[in-house]
Amino acid sequence: MTVPTAVTLSRFSAVRQGSTVVVSWETGTELDSAGFHLYRSSDGDRSSAERVTGSLIAAQGEGGAGASYSWRDLSVEPGTSYSYWLVETTLAGQQIEYGPVSTAGDTAAETFIYLPLLR
Q1: How many structural domains does the chain have?
Q2: Residue 79 to residue 89: CA distance in whole angstroms
């Protein structure tokens, strides 16, 4: 049995902008979510990823609605590829991981998650 997650993630991207990387994500729904942390790796391996957010990015979705988020990574090297993981923390303390998304040197990568349309 799959346990439903507190967040429905609809977009997660990492885009180079000059000497920084802007990591963005969008949620379709948020239920009992406390917030998010981001982890980064320069070798694409999750086991070497380090948390790059100093504090929890507070969940903004209200009443089950979703929200849009953006975080700028200022400590990146030119020409280096990075992978990012988004880790949600629920109000109960459970952690749910999404990703990775990656940059390829000085270019961008984006992941779209397509959800079925229910009527």
Answers
A1: 1
A2: 32
Terminal alpha carbon distance of the chain: 24
* CATH number, domain containing residue 28: 2.60.40.10
Write down the pTM of the prediction: 0.83
Residue 119 lies in a domain: no
pLDDT score for 1:
40
18 within a domain of the structure (yes/no): yes
Q: Give per-residue pLDDT as tens, 3-48.
A: 555 678 899 999 988 889 999 999 998 988 999 999 999 999 999 9
Give the three-class secondary structure for 78.
coil
Rounded to the nearest integer, the mean pLDDT of the chain is 86
* Portion of the chain with pLDDT greater than 90, in percent: 64
**How far out from the chain centre does Cα 46 lie?**
14
How far from chain centre, in Å, is Cα 18? Answer: 20
d(CA 10, CA 90): 18
1 assigned to some structural domain: no
Task: For residue 63, give its domain range.
Answer: 7-112
Distance from C-alpha of 109 to C-alpha of 44, rounded to nearest angstrom: 13
